[in-house]
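Hi Y.,

Following your request, here is the sequence exactly as I used it, all 387 residues.
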Amino acid sequence: MSGKARDVDDLVAPLKALRRDIHAHPELGFAEHRTAALIAEALRDIGLEVTTGIGGTGVVGVLRAGGSDRTLGLRADMDALPIREETGLAYASQAQGVFHGCGHDGHVAMLLGAARHLARTRSFDGTVNFIFQPAEEGLGGARQMIAEGLFERFPTQQVYALHNWPDLPVGTAMTRPGPIMAAADKFEIVVEGRGAHAAMPHQTPDAILAASELVSQLNTIVARRIAPTASAVLSVTQIHGGQAHNVLPATVEIAGTVRTFDAAVQDRIEASMRLIAQGVATAHEVRISVNYNRYYPATINDPEAAAEALAAAACVCRHTAMAPEPAFTSEDFAFMLQATKGAYLWLGQGGGSGQVPLHHPHYDFNDEIIGTGLKWHVALAERLLAA
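Below is the corresponding structure, written out as tokens. Let me know if you'd prefer a different format.
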């Protein structure tokens, strides 16, 4: 990285203040109106071409330098989580039950800093599209932006994103070719009997008993129907049924998630789930309906792009490495990687916020890595769009 690109110290303090302001005013997916307005104003202030309202509240800033037709996309997510914050910080969330518990406030700050720095140095030749995406947390904001013409309106030959990673120490970055984050599916199952007095169980199919057997059998799918060399997780996370101790309920609801990296494994799990449900329904004389929703695909890095992401990280981090295995968490940046070549990076932030995991009510983004993330975005632009 050039000497100019290293000189970002004057940006870090205002970016820290900006990040904490966003943290104090979190907004859920597709409702990031204040955040999007703040971003658009900041981008206009540094002279970028700004488009708002893509994918609902998405914002894109375009910066050009030189005469090359090469293009690069850099993406940050904007939304918060429906979690009650318990940090006790001076800049804690002012919105009841809404909280930046995943660090998207920090991602926004880093990408805005990179835009400001590249706008003043123009140390690249081509076009950089700064993509600020809504609704990453389960609502598919990336998919919506793409559906509304993101890459047709802003042609992007390669696209990159990072995520702060509490499990990695500060100064460390990792990525890997191929799968880096899992596909995320959710299932909702309804078991229907007729209901009756609990003292007379012989008069009705027992929905509770059927649901219990179903949960037990679902937990055998990965162990017995998926090859040991494949990776998958199936977790039942909700069971709802009954309101009184002496009544057998007519209906029991079950819900959960499945995480995979391979579409064939995903198909096998869904098919097995439906077959098991059919068998339990027959055995217990109940009706069982299965709603299976594949809401996020696996995040698959292009091998060459993953190498570029790691090379850029090597310019700004003390330690970089290929991740030994993917994570079972999911990320809707996957939709962008289906649309164009690119890669996703984990940037270590352990230390400033300890080992508090993502999506925990005591989590906070570590401001110590704002400068590092800013420099990584700049390094990518300077490498891939070298003047």
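The chain has a mean pLDDT of 95.

Thanks again,
Q.
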